[in-house]
Design the sequence.
């Protein structure tokens, strides 16, 4: 039995390596529905390695997760009734910094370990360089892209060098008020991780107070 588990483990690992080296991989979809439950991060259910669905409702299509697939931390988040504006060691049996991937760990119990160094991008995971020039402006903090990932320049002139990394989770703290906002929230089939002005006739920042705004229609100004 032990030998069988060993073989299965290596088979899964080799499949993961093969998959990572493929031409074009589909991306994780968060949240996704699996066996009637919503998941906002990669899971290890029935698997040796973390995985995610590549469809909003799991239909058999999935992939193993790499560090770049994990969702970003949500700040602030509630843990044991207390708000946290950054990664924490509280409650961690492994003494590793972690964060919730929804506004309330107490409600969803979904989390991930925090990345303490920059990763991904096209600069071999070099650290952020601030200030930097980007689109002829000076930037001094991580920037959100169209996939809601936070990235940073890794040289003093992004316009000239084009080098970047995904920001370490420990570099990020609360960017906007989180209560009673629910982050992420879904509005017109798009996930939002911060307050937005989209859809506001007054052009004021707002957020949903539940995950599915289109269903619940509950919101507040930020």
Sequence:
């Amino acid at each position: 039995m032990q030998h069988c588990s060993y073989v299965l483990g290596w088979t899964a690992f080799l499949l993961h390596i093969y998959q990572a080296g493929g031409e074009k991989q589909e991306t994780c979809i968060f949240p996704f529905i699996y066996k009637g439950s919503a998941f906002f991060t990669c899971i290890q259910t029935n698997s040796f390695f973390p995985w995610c669905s590549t469809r909003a409702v799991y239909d058999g299509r999935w992939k193993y997760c790499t560090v770049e697939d994990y969702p970003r931390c949500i700040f602030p988040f509630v843990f044991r009734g207390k708000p946290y504006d950054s990664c924490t060691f509280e409650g961690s049996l492994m003494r590793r910094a972690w964060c919730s991937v929804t506004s309330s760990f107490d409600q969803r119990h979904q989390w991930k370990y925090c990345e303490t160094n920059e990763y991904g991008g096209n600069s071999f995971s070099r650290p952020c360089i601030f200030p930097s020039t980007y689109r002829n402006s000076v930037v001094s903090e991580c920037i959100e892209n169209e996939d809601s990932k936070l990235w940073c320049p890794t040289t003093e002139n992004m316009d000239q060098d084009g080098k970047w990394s995904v920001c370490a989770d420990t570099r990020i703290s609360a960017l906007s008020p989180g209560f009673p906002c629910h982050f992420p929230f879904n509005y017109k089939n798009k996930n939002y991780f911060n307050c937005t002005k989209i859809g506001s006739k007054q052009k004021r920042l707002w957020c949903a107070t539940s995950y599915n705004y289109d269903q619940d229609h509950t919101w507040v100004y930020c």
In short: The first strand starts at residue 32 and ends at 34. Helices lie at 2-20, 105-108, 158-161, 213-216. The chain has four helices and 17 strands.
